């Protein structure tokens, strides 16, 4: 494909249509990459799509705000839906198909089978959002099976989500590889997120503390800090001092089990979730050694 | 393939080996049929294998006594394991691959993702055996994904199991068709089951009541009986009178939702489960009209 070729992707909104197209590709021997998104695309998503484009002969991007991963009091209704803009952003990237189903297409009447996510889903995000990961694993499995994907791409920003999905892929023998790509950040360090647009200008400024607190903790680790509880307490206090309203968690964990580490052994992942002006932000940093 | 050709199936006990072989077949465009069994094969299983042979270019039979579908006080330890005999029975049927993994191959350390089965799994068998269908849907999904199956075969004898699996295949977009084949019976009507061998000679004779009670109820339906509770009570009493120790359920249900039907509308399925001499037997009869 020439550098200037722009491929017009198939826009598909029916599950059967996606399955049929993908099955044809698979039977041709094509590798198929799926990048599952909820739309409101930003540079983080686009980095996943570019990696998918390099890795596989066929690239499918799904855009679906998945209701089953939202709790009853969460932001499902106000979650940003920017389909036209998303399609614009994807246009230069050479995607083969974009899957934009409506809710009824993926959750038809009588739907009641879910993926019960692995044990590590009860920690952190799962402790705060009790049915969140059940919704995530269910929709990810459905999309992977419909798209006959042989590889899928997730962002490290949702660190626990990637760990949960990785365990699901193994446990259910899904036969799909997982690649996790680095968090893409704004120039001031804030992790890109579709939810950043909820922030007021003031809160947006204060929100930079999230990454600053993580990099400070990383420096402490590099200087030899191994007290997991002390580091957690420090991150917690620093977030409150910086203007966050509350901290859901700020911890140092084993990157695979996500159990809190104390004493800390490397590699370690720092996970934080905190609230500011009604918006909940998460971020993380993996530290493998100095 | 000539009528006298006997194909030697590949015997595979590693999940990765099965996936690799099946993926190759799928990429060649072969249809792949999976017949999942727990071994202790009888004519019921063999009828599924023959149908699979007719339906698909590649036939995989799995033989795996799945621990997650047994309750803590059930018969996992004593469940019959007759692998050599099973292989003998399969030999003339022209199977392409037989998958006989050990437990660790399908449930490795850290395994903790399950399929949470659909709503209808809480009824009848699910009410008595609380985690049974979770085990069934989990292993069936795993085996279908490993074998890249495009069609799978189940026996009607486990009516609710087939209904649960059908719903799972739809809900999780598995992309695999389901065929349910008629129950194969002994000459005296007893449904073939690997568990029949648990029965003493006396209990084996009494066990024929299970099918007799079902056919009597079918005659009542043909004569116009539409009182669901009366029919259930009659079946229940007849089973006790015939020497069953207890009846778990004996009911007339909607074949799709498995909700008890009263008044009865057609089609209707009669479901029974009863215990005799420590053995639990199930059977059913679908009545679509006179």
Strand order of the largest sheet of chain A: 1-4-3-2-6-7
**In total, how many beta strands of chain A?**
10
The biggest sheet of chain A, with number of strands, parallel, antiparallel or mixed sense and barrel status, is: 6 strands, parallel
Tell me the domain tally of chain A: 2
Task: Just name the CATH architecture of the largest domain in chain A.
Answer: 3-Layer(aba) Sandwich
Please give the alpha-carbon distance between the first and last residues of chain A: 42 Å
Shape of chain A: globular
Q: What radius of gyration of chain A results from the CA coordinates? A: 19 Å
CATH fold title of the largest domain in chain A: Rossmann fold
* Average pLDDT over all residues of chain A: 96
Oligomer: homodimer
Task: Determine and state the CATH class of the largest domain in chain A.
Answer: Alpha Beta
Estimate the helix proportion of chain A, in percent.
Answer: 25-40%
Order of helices and strands of chain A: EHEHEHEHEHHEHEHHHEEE
In CATH terms, the superfamily of the largest domain in chain A is HUPs
Number of helices of chain A: 10
Percent range for β-strand residues of chain A: 15-25%
Which segments of chain A are poorly predicted (pLDDT under 50) over 5 or more consecutive residues? none
């Amino acid at each position: 494909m020439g550098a200037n070729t722009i491929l017009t992707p198939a826009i598909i909104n029916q599950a059967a249509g996606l399955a049929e197209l993908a099955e044809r590709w698979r039977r041709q021997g094509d590798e198929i990459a799926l990048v599952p998104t909820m739309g409101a695309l930003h540079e983080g998503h686009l980095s996943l799509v570019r990696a998918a484009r390099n890795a596989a002969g066929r690239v499918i991007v799904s855009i679906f705000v998945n209701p089953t991963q939202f709790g009853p009091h969460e932001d499902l209704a106000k979650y940003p839906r920017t389909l036209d803009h998303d399609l614009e952003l994807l246009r230069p990237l050479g995607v083969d198909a974009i899957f934009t189903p409506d809710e009824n297409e993926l959750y038809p009447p009588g739907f009641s089978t879910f993926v019960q996510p692995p044990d590590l889903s009860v920690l952190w995000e799962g402790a705060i959002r009790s049915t969140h990961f059940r919704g995530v694993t269910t929709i990810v499995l459905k999309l992977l099976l419909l798209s006959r994907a042989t590889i899928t791409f997730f962002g490290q920003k949702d660190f626990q989500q990637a760990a949960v999905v990785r365990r699901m892929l193994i446990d259910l023998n899904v036969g799909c590889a997982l690649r996790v790509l680095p968090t893409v950040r704004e120039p001031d360090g804030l992790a890109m997120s579709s939810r950043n647009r909820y922030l007021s200008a003031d809160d947006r400024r204060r929100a930079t503390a999230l990454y600053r607190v993580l990099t400070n903790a990383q420096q402490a680790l590099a200087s030899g800090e191994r007290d997991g509880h002390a580091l957690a307490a420090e991150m917690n206090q620093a977030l409150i001092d910086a203007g966050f309203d509350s901290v859901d968690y700020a911890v140092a964990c084993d990157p695979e089990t996500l159990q809190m580490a104390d004493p800390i052994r490397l590699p370690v992942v720092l996970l934080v979730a905190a609230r500011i002006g009604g918006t909940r932000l998460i971020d993380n940093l993996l530290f493998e050694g100095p």
